[in-house]
Amino acid sequence: MRPVLFSILGVDVQSYGLSKALAALVAAWLLGRAFETLGLKKDSAHALVLWATVWGFVGAKIYFLLERLPDVTAHDLGGMGFTWYGGLVGGLGAALVVIRRHHLPVGPVAGAAAVPLTVAYGIGRLGCLVSGDGTYGRPTDLPWGMRFPSGVVATDVPVHPTPVYEALAAALIAVALWRIASRLSPLAVFGVYLVLSGLSRFLVEFLRVNDAVVLSLTQPQLWAIASVVVGVLLVLRAGRVTSDQTQGVRESPGLRVTSARV
């Protein structure tokens, strides 16, 4: 593992930070292409990713520090220590502000963001793996168990490489979302993203070392359950709207005349 990849003029370039920058760049490129397909400005996509990334990091750091209370140290204020769901809240808040300022349609933007979000998450998790930031899992004797002797949070004991599991899951989810994008409404696609990503995180938590908080579930698992619930509600709402629109079209007098001619 290599927490520090190289140095430039005495400044360390960390694998963790570089992976997050790469994730943001890839997300901006993917979202820009999706915006062009929707007839939206690519600049709006780039602004969305930029501010969502900045405030996502702010939210992730704040949430991490709140989790550490009252034992926060100066080390916790550094470049490591971020919580995904805090980042999701911060990034989502910033995204909504950008959407409003750029007068963007919420549903189509949410659907377009599903794949970029998933791909970015997978890239970020690979950065966690290379840096050995402590997001690995419990000890294991499985042949693919990994040691992190030089990681930021070092261990010589073979453990579950949960960042690899999550990166692989993200790749599968991204492919699934890409395949269903043309068959579902954008809001439903985003709902499916919330469901699948929530299920992935819920399951992988059983292999990680986070403390249980309620009903033997960890805090990330509670967030994952909330993600699944919201995702299901979005899918149901999108289906209801589509059904209402279809019913309205069927009841249109003009359409009935056209159908009679056919």
UniProtKB/TrEMBL annotation:
<feature type="transmembrane region" description="Helical">
    <location>
        <begin position="164"/>
        <end position="181"/>
    </location>
</feature>
<keyword id="KW-0449">Lipoprotein</keyword>
<dbReference type="GO" id="GO:0005886">
    <property type="term" value="C:plasma membrane"/>
</dbReference>
<feature type="transmembrane region" description="Helical">
    <location>
        <begin position="188"/>
        <end position="209"/>
    </location>
</feature>
<feature type="binding site">
    <location>
        <position position="125"/>
    </location>
    <ligand>
        <name>a 1,2-diacyl-sn-glycero-3-phospho-(1'-sn-glycerol)</name>
    </ligand>
</feature>
<dbReference type="Pfam" id="PF01790">
    <property type="entry name" value="LGT"/>
</dbReference>
<dbReference type="InterPro" id="IPR001640">
    <property type="entry name" value="Lgt"/>
</dbReference>
<comment type="similarity">
    <text>Belongs to the Lgt family.</text>
</comment>
<protein>
    <recommendedName>
        <fullName>Phosphatidylglycerol--prolipoprotein diacylglyceryl transferase</fullName>
        <ecNumber>2.5.1.145</ecNumber>
    </recommendedName>
</protein>
<feature type="transmembrane region" description="Helical">
    <location>
        <begin position="16"/>
        <end position="35"/>
    </location>
</feature>
<feature type="transmembrane region" description="Helical">
    <location>
        <begin position="78"/>
        <end position="99"/>
    </location>
</feature>
<feature type="transmembrane region" description="Helical">
    <location>
        <begin position="106"/>
        <end position="124"/>
    </location>
</feature>
<keyword id="KW-1133">Transmembrane helix</keyword>
<feature type="transmembrane region" description="Helical">
    <location>
        <begin position="47"/>
        <end position="66"/>
    </location>
</feature>
<comment type="function">
    <text>Catalyzes the transfer of the diacylglyceryl group from phosphatidylglycerol to the sulfhydryl group of the N-terminal cysteine of a prolipoprotein, the first step in the formation of mature lipoproteins.</text>
</comment>
<keyword id="KW-0808">Transferase</keyword>
<dbReference type="GO" id="GO:0042158">
    <property type="term" value="P:lipoprotein biosynthetic process"/>
</dbReference>
<feature type="transmembrane region" description="Helical">
    <location>
        <begin position="221"/>
        <end position="239"/>
    </location>
</feature>
<comment type="pathway">
    <text>Protein modification; lipoprotein biosynthesis (diacylglyceryl transfer).</text>
</comment>
<dbReference type="GO" id="GO:0008961">
    <property type="term" value="F:phosphatidylglycerol-prolipoprotein diacylglyceryl transferase activity"/>
</dbReference>
<keyword id="KW-1003">Cell membrane</keyword>
<keyword id="KW-0472">Membrane</keyword>
<keyword id="KW-0812">Transmembrane</keyword>
